[in-house]
Inverse folding.
């Protein structure tokens, strides 16, 4: 069984995270429960930042917070001197409420509304990553009305396909994101913003996909962007000050995954950019990156209570847990794979094969097919590893199931980061029926 970060097994056979017994966490906070290993998140953040510092390259490491957003995680990001990537007005609002420095916030999104962009101006965030021509016009209108400057990057699609799932590959030509680098769209966007009195163009941004285990795609994309920057300098004397190469750094979900250490991705990016700076006789830009999953993904563990079991003779053994696709949609959406253990029997041999089903009223609500586990009994605790990214952030109230609590653990301490929703929370926005009260015959 692969253990992550501070995970270990206690003398009584329980899974420990951050020096805290998961059995005790279940007793204190109930299940389902998201548990975050804060020491692991800190180490990952420092791995990225320290590599830039050691190589003497000016940089910003922005947490791509769509992976997991809440006030507490934003405050942790602030502690670790990260910048922040937000993709909605809601994420931006949460970041501001958390006290995160607005000047270190970058705002993404392919269809930002007028109200969202106004909020970005009003809170004086550090940068907007511009995605399309419609957004350019909105930015011009807002900046001119407010007579307020805003730093921007142009997001481009460099035509680089990452070796990953089609649904999470965003750098190829056929993408809803960004200006195409190869068909003239990026040049047209550049012309529309480069001399605007209130829009300060810093440079280019790209994101080639997610769950990437190699550096070749990043190097190829960086080379394409640097060539475009060279062209713009030659033609228009434009000086690029920022090159944002996005995120997508992979993590280990199962034994089939072989991620690289943060410093390997960073070192290869820096090497490629420096080579292009030398070749094209450019000034060295700041390098920005946007790790999300690689900061919080394997730092998160979902803890469930096992309930019913079902045997389909000669086909399958099912165990059902008290959560499912309402707190982890990724297996149904992406066919995502996970590993797990029975947290209160972590010391025992995993000699049984079960399909882990959720409690939602959908036949596709299966968290893990053919999981190798210890013998499961009702009341046991199932720990599913690496659910820290796109678990809680994509959670829903489907079937009117309340969303789980989130707890942070570190050095033997634990803290509630997000309260469990109650049934009352589910109906707080519901209104009574008030149309025609006459019954229809």
């Amino acid at each position: 069984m692969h253990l992550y970060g501070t995970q270990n097994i206690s003398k009584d056979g329980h899974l420990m995270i951050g020096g805290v017994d998961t059995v005790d966490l279940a007793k204190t906070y109930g299940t389902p429960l998201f548990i975050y290993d804060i020491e692991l998140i800190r180490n990952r953040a420092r791995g990225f930042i320290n590599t830039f510092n050691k190589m003497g390259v000016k940089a910003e490491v922005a947490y791509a917070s769509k992976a997991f957003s809440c006030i507490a995680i934003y405050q942790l990001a602030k502690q670790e001197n990260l910048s922040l990537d937000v993709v909605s007005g809601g994420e931006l609002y949460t970041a501001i409420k958390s006290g995160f420095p607005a000047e270190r916030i970058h705002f993404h999104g392919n269809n930002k509304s007028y109200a969202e962009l106004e909020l970005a101006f009003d809170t004086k965030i550090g940068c907007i990553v511009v995605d399309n021509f419609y957004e350019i016009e909105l930015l011009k209108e807002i900046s001119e009305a407010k007579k307020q400057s805003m730093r921007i990057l142009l997001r481009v699609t460099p035509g680089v396909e990452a070796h990953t799932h089609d649904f999470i590959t965003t750098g190829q030509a056929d993408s809803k994101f960004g200006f195409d680098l190869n068909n003239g769209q990026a040049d047209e966007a550049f012309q529309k913003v480069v001399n605007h009195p209130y829009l300060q163009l810093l440079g280019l941004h790209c994101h080639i996909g997610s769950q990437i285990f190699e550096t070749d795609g990043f190097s190829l994309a960086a080379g394409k962007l640097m060539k475009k920057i060279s062209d713009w300098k030659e033609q228009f004397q434009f000086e690029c000050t920022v090159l944002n190469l996005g995120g997508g750094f992979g993590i280990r979900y199962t034994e089939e995954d072989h991620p690289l250490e943060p410093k390997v991705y960073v070192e290869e990016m820096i090497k490629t950019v420096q080579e292009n700076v030398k070749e094209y006789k450019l000034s060295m830009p700041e390098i920005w990156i946007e790790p999300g999953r690689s900061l919080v993904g394997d730092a998160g563990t979902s803890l469930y209570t096992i309930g019913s079991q079902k045997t389909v003779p000669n086909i399958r053994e099912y165990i059902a847990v008290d959560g499912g696709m309402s707190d982890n949609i990724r297996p149904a959406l992406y066919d995502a794979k996970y590993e797990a253990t029975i947290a209160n029997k972590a010391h025992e041999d995993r000699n049984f094969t079960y399909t882990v089903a959720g409690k939602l009223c959908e036949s596709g609500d299966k968290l893990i097919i053919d999981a190798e586990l210890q013998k499961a009994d009702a009341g046991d605790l199932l720990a599913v590893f690496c659910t820290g990214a796109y678990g809680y952030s994509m959670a829903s109230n489907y079937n009117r199931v309340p969303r789980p609590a989130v707890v942070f653990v570190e050095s033997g301490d634990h803290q509630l980061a997000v309260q469990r929703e109650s049934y009352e929370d589910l109906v707080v926005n519901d209104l009574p029926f008030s149309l025609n009260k006459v019954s229809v015959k």
About this structure: Residues 216-236 form the longest helix (21 residues). The chain has two domains: 8-37+297-427, 108-291. DSSP finds twelve helices and 21 strands in the chain.
